[in-house]
Specification:
This protein is an alpha+beta fold. It is 37% helix and 15% strand. The longest helix has 16 residues. It holds the Pfam family S4.
């Protein structure tokens, strides 16, 4: 297995750091994936013991490669192929970013009325005009 070749983009996708391989490749090309402080291209070969610094939209990672994974597997399996060595201050920053992350759902009781509230409002407005 040691002579098998594995690209950085495919590895980062298979250990579930990126949702798609295209996103992993784009991150490599834009310099968001670094090996020992140097930006790497998507086609760079992964070796055991490599330490990568990765910036995703959600958080910063620092990982060490402990195994080569060619196919995407469930998260509980994927975590066995790397060690998360993210520094403490980056982990705290990741926590802050996660807590401020907007799900896109509207907070209740502000904004547009629900269908039921709309009917009540319409009924209320019509009764007021008739008087």
């Amino acid at each position: 297995m040691s002579n098998e070749k594995l690209r950085v983009d495919k590895y980062l996708w298979s250990i579930r750091i990126f949702k798609t391989r295209t996103m992993a490749a784009a991150a490599c090309d834009s310099g968001k994936v670094k090996l020992n402080g140097t930006a790497v291209k998507a086609a760079k070969q992964v070796s055991l013991g490599d330490q990568y610094e990765i910036k995703t939209e959600a958080r910063k990672w620092k990982i060490e490669v402990t195994g080569l994974l060619h196919n995407r597997v469930q998260y509980s399996e994927a975590v066995k192929y790397y060690v998360d060595i993210t520094p403490e201050e980056d982990q705290q920053q990741n926590q802050r970013m996660a807590s401020s992350f907007n799900t896109g759902k509207r907070p209740s009781k502000i904004g547009r009325p629900t269908k039921k509230e709309r009917r009540d409002l319409d009924g209320f407005m019509v009764n007021e005009e008739e008087e």
